[in-house]
Amino acid sequence: MNDIVVRDDLSLVATGSQDFVTVMLDGQIVGIPVLAVHDVLNAQQITMIPRAQDWVAGVLNLRGRIVTAIDLRRRLGLPPLEEGKSSMSVVVEHNEEPYSLQIDKVGEVLSLDDADFEKNPVTLDPRWREVSMGIYRLKEQLLPILDVDRLLAFESNGKAA
Amino acid sequence: MDDLLNEFLTETGESIDVVDVELVKLEQDPNNKEVLDNIFRLVHTIKGTCGFLGLPRLESVAHASENVLGKFRDGELQVSENAVTVILESLDRIKEILAGLEATEEEPEGDDSELIGRLDAIAEGGEAAAAEPDPEPDTVDGEIIDTTLGRALKPGEVSLEELEAAFANAPGPGDGGEASESSTAEASDKDADASLFDRVGGEDTIAVAAHLISQRVENDSKLGKFFEGTSQDQRKGKFMGLMLAMFKDDMDAADAVGRQLVTVAGFGEAQFDAMLETVKAVLVECHVDADSADEAVMMFELVREAVINASKEVAQPKAAAGGRAKPGEQQAAASKEPRKSTQSIRVNVDLLEDLMNMVSELVLTRNQLLQITRNMDNSELGVPLQRLSQCTTELQENVMKTRMQPIGNAWAKLPRIVRDLTVELDKKIELEMLGADTELDRQVLELIKDPLTHMVRNSADHGIESPAERIAVGKPEMGTIVLNAYHEGGHIIIEIKDDGRGINPDKLSKKIIEKGLATEGELASMSEAQIQKFIFHPGFSTAEQVTSVSGRGVGMDVVRSNIEKIGGTIDMVSTVGKGSNFSIKIPLTLAIVAGLIVKAQEERYAIPQISVLELVRATSAEKAGDSDHKIEMINDTPVLRLRNRLLPLVYLNEVLGFEKNEEAAESEGDDFIVVSQVGAFTFGIVVDQVFDTEEIVVKPVAPILKDLDIYSGNTILGDGSVIMILDPNGIAALASQGVSDAADEEDDQELVRRAASSDKESMLVFRAGQEHPRAVPLSLVARLEEIDISSVETSDGRLMVQYRGALMPLVLADPAMSLRESGNQPVLVFTDRQFTMGLAVDEILDIVEDEMDIKLASDKPGVIGSAVINEKASEVIDVTYFLGLAFPDWLASRDMSEDTTVSRSSERVLVVDDSDFFRNMLKPILTVAGYNVTAVNNAQAALDLLEDGETFDLAISDIEMPDMSGYEFAQAVRANDDWSGMRLVALSALSSERDVNRGFEAGFDDYVAKFDKDTLLRSLVQQFKIKGDAA
C-alpha cells in the first residue's frame, strides 16, 4: 500500500508539476488527476439499481456507453446531497470500464507544484485515507487527491462502504 | 470430411498464392532469410495438412519442394533461378491437384515421380546436379530448359512458355525433326546413355517410330477408328511431338500434345493399352533397347489420363485443321473449372465481433430515431427512416449470419467419442445426428460444445446399458443416442435422447439422502420427475462407480449452469427402462435479444423474452369476478390459479427490495403477471405495468454489479435511458431460496395440502394491548386489513367501520388496548357466513407454521389457552368469544367458569363438520379440554375412517352437511354393530324441538346447539360418563 504512494510521489517529483481537476464534495475540495478524467457531465438521468451497494448511484447513458455511477458522497461517508440539488458527473475509467463519479460541482483545473505535495496525515479518516493519494497544500485550503484506481478497485475492497 | 477438405482447399489455395509471390521475391533477393522462412513454413504446412488428410500425391510433391527449400534455408544450397522454377512448377502441380480435389473431392490420378526426381536432384546439391549428364538443350523448334540442371538459363535457351508456343506453331513434325537433327545428333554423341531421348536414338529414331506408329494405329482393328479423321501426317506429327516432349521430360508439353492425340470419343483404357503395345513393338523394331523401350512406354503412362480425358471431352471443338490447338486454349478450358474456394474469404473473428458491436449500436440508434419520430407529426423523416430501419434490420441479420455456424461443428467430435466409449465400456451404441446444419451463433456454439459433449458421454456411460442387459430386457443390442437440433421461434432446441435405462428415482433417492440434499420425508412427497431433476443439483453423479468416462464429480449441474449462463434452459424427461430425453433451449444469439419491458416502482426493467411464457392480468381480489384471475394467498405466499394449476408468484417490487409483500398485494389496480419458466420451474413475476417488447442489445453489467444475480445485463432503450435486464434464473433462485428444482408447481400444491393437513397449524401472531404475543389459527382469519382510523364510527356504543359496502363491527382484541389516534389500524377480519367482524390489534407480528400444542386452558375470557409459538408463550385467542362480543345473537350464552381441564387424552373424539371455521374452532377447544381430536370435513370421510378400523369414543357431528347429512351419518354408524360403543353428539344450529327429536331418532345420544361451547363440553363429559358407566 505504502510503496504505491511513494512511487506516486517519485513520479510527481520527476515531472515537476501536475494538473488536477478540482471538484466539490460537501464543501470539501478534492482533486482528481486530470489525465484520469474522460468527461465531465451535467446532471444526467441515472437509472438506479435496486439491491446494489448503496454507494452505487446507478447507471447512465454516455453517448451509447453504459456508465456505472458511483455516489462519491456515500462512498466517502458524507451526507447525501440536499433535495432538489443535482449532482455532476466526472467520468473516469478503471480496467477499461467507465465509471461516473457523482460529485456536487466541478471546480477548475489546477496545475500544482510537486513541492506542495504531502502524504496523507495518519490521522485522516480511514475512509478518506483509503482513496486519497496525498494532500496538496494550497494557499487557502488543503486539496486531497483522489486515487481513482483505488477508489474503484471493488474487487479487493468491496466491503468498504 | 467435406468441411475439412473445403477448409483445406481454401487455406492451401491462399498459402500457395502467397508462396508464388514470395518465391518470386526470393528469386530477386536470394539472401532474404525472412522470405525463405516464410515460404518454407507455408510449404511445410501444406505438406503437414496433406499428410493429415490422406492426400499422398500432394504430400509427396510438397515434401520434395520442402526438402529443397529446407536446404536453401540451411544454406546448403544456393537459391538459383532454376531451382525456383522447379519449385514453382511443383506449386503448379499442387494447384492442379487441388483443382482436381475441388472438382471430384479426390486426388486426381497422376505420376509426379519425375517432378519429384528433379526436386530431389536439386536437393542433393547443385554440384551433383551440374555433374549430371547435361544434354545440351535439345530442341525441336527452340530450346528447352533442362530443369534438372540446377543453374541459370544459358544464352540461347528459352523459357517454357516460349517453348510451348513454339510447339504450337511448329509447321510439321517432319520438318521440325529434320531441322534440328544435327544438334540432336551432337547431343546424343556427347552423352550416349544419359537421357531417355538420347537412349532411344534421338530424333531420328523418334521420327521413324512416330511414322510407324501412326501407320499401325490406323490399320489396327481396335484403334483405327479413333484416328480415321486425321491424315497420316497429322498423326505422325502428334506422336512425334508427344514422344519428343515426353522423352525430354517436358511433361506440360507432353500433356498438351497428349490431349490432342485422339479427337474421337470413346478412347478408353483398353484402347490406350492397345496403343502402348503398338508403341512398344515399334520401338523394339527401331532397335531401341528393351530398358529404354520400357521406360518410354512408362512415359506414355504419364499422358494416359490426358489422352483418355481428351477423348471424353470430345464435345469440345475439334482441333484446328492444322492439327494442333494451342496449348493456351487447353489451359483456358481447364481453368474454367469452378473455384469454390474463392467464394469464401477468411475474416478475423475480432473483426466480426467489432462489426457485430457496431451493428448493435446502429440498431440502438435506429430504435432511438424511431422513438423520436413516433412522437413527431413531421412525416418528412418517415420514409427515409423506414428505409434506414429496413436496411439496419437486414444488415443486422446478415452480420448475425456471418457469426452463424452449423451446430454440426460442435458435434464433429462426438462420433469419435462415442466410438471410443463403445470400445472402452464394451457397449454397442449408435449415434444418430439430426439437424447438424442448424445454424447458431459462433459464441453460443463455443459455449454449448462442452455441455453437449458431456451429456452425450453421460448418455453413453450412464444411459445405455450393456448389450447383455439390453437383451435381457428385450431391447435391441445396439443402443441409440439421438442428437437432434432444430429452430423453434428464435430459439434452438437441441435434444439428446437415448433409449437406455432411464434415471431410476429409487437409486437417486438413496443418493440424495446420502448426500443430504433432501430428507426422506421431502422425497416421499416428490414426484418422480422432481426426484430425477436432482441430477442437476451441484455435486451429483449417479454412476455407481466412477469410470474414466464420466462421473468425475462435475455433473449435470455444470451443464445446467453453462447453459443457463447463455440464457438457455435445460429440461429432462426420463422413463425408467425406456430412456432419457434432455432438451436444451438456447437463444440464437447472445448479442441481441427480445426483451419484455416492465415497470416496477417507477423504474423500467427488461425480462428476456426467452423465459417469458405468457402474460396474465390479475384483478385485485376485491373486484375479481369468478372468471377473472386473482392473486390468492397461502400463508403469506401469493399464488395464482392458472388453468387448474397453482402458480407461485413473486413480486418484482419485493425482489428488488422496494415494498413489503402485503402492501404490494393490497395496492389497488390490476397486477400484471409475467409467467416465466426457468428450467422446469414455472413462476409468475408480478409487475406494476407491462410495456412492449423491444430488441435489446445485452451489455454486461459493470464488475461491481456482477454478484447481483437478479440482473443478467443492462441495455440502452430507444429513448436513450439505461435499463437493467432481469435474470429470471436469479429471481427464481431468490424467490425459492435456492431450491428452484424442488420448488416445482407440484411442490406448491404439496405445500397447500400439507398446510391443510392436521399436523401443523398456521398461526397468525399479533400483539394487542399487552406485551406478550397472541395467536389465532390463520385459517380462521379471512383477511388482514389496515383500516383508516378516521373511518371508524361509533354506533350504539359499539365500534363500527364501513367495510366493503357494509357495516362491520370492530372489536378490540384486548380491553387494555385502544385504537390509534390517527393513521391505519391493523385489523383481522373474521367471517362466518353472514357474520363479519374486525378484530383490532396493535401490530401483526408474524405467521408461524407450527404444531399447535396448547398447554393450558385459560380462565381469561377470549383466550383458549397458551401455546409456545416461536419459542415464546403466546395466548391463543378464542374467536368465538369475540364473535359473541360483536354479535350478541351469535352466541347465546357463555360460561367459562367450569373447569374442563381434566386430562382425557385417552378419549378419542371425531369431529365431523363441513365448516372450516367450526372445525378449526372446535379442535383447539376440545384439545384444550383434553380430548384427542380428529377432524374431518364430511360424513363420508368419517365413515371411511371408521371402515379403516379407526376407533373413536365419541363423534361430534354437524347436521347440515352436503352429500350426507348428520342424520344419515348417525343412522349409518348405528347400522354397524362394531361401532355401537361410540357415543354420538349432534351439534347443530337447527335446534327446534322437531330437529332435536329427529336427531335422537337417527341415533344421536345428545343434541347440542351450535355456538354453545360450554354446553358442548358438558355434554361430552356427560356422554363419557354414560359410556364409562355402560362399560
Q: Report on the biggest sheet of chain A.
A: 5 strands, mixed
**Architecture per CATH nomenclature, i.e. the level-2 architecture of the largest domain in chain B:** Orthogonal Bundle
The fold-level CATH name of the largest domain in chain B is Globin-like
Radius of gyration of chain B: 48 Å
Low-confidence region ranges of chain B: 127-158, 170-193, 315-341, 543-553, 738-759, 891-904
CATH top-level class of chain A = Mainly Beta
Q: According to CATH, what is the class of the largest domain in chain B? A: Mainly Alpha
Distance between the termini of chain A: 19 Å
| Overall mean pLDDT of chain A | 80
Enumerate the strands of the largest sheet of chain B in spatial order, edge to edge or round the barrel. 10-14-15-13-12-11
What's the number of structural domains of chain B? 7
**Which structural class is indicated by helix and strand composition of chain B?**
alpha+beta
Share of helix of chain A, binned: 10-25%
Helix and strand content put the structural class of chain A at: alpha+beta
- Based on DSSP secondary structure assignment, what is the total number of beta strands of chain B? 35
How would you sum up this structure, described in words?
The complex is a heterodimer of chains A (161) and B (1031). With 161 residues, chain A is an alpha+beta fold. Chain A has a single domain, classed as CheA-289, Domain 4 (OB fold (Dihydrolipoamide Acetyltransferase, E2P)). Chain A contains 5 helices and 11 strands. Chain A has a 5-stranded mixed β-sheet with strand order 3-6-7-5-4. The longest helix of chain A has 14 residues. Chain B folds into 7 domains: 132 residues, Up-down Bundle (Four Helix Bundle (Hemerythrin (Met), subunit A)), CATH 1.20.120.160; 196 residues, Globin-like (Orthogonal Bundle); 54 residues, Helix Hairpins (Orthogonal Bundle); 180 residues, 2-Layer Sandwich (Heat Shock Protein 90), CATH 3.30.565.10; 160 residues, Roll (SH3 type barrels); 129 residues, OB fold (Dihydrolipoamide Acetyltransferase, E2P); 123 residues, Rossmann fold, CATH 3.40.50. In chain B, a hairpin with a 2-residue loop joins strand 14 and strand 15. Chain B is elongated, with a radius of gyration of 48 Å. Chains A and B meet through strand 4 of A and helix 18, strand 17 and strand 18 of B.
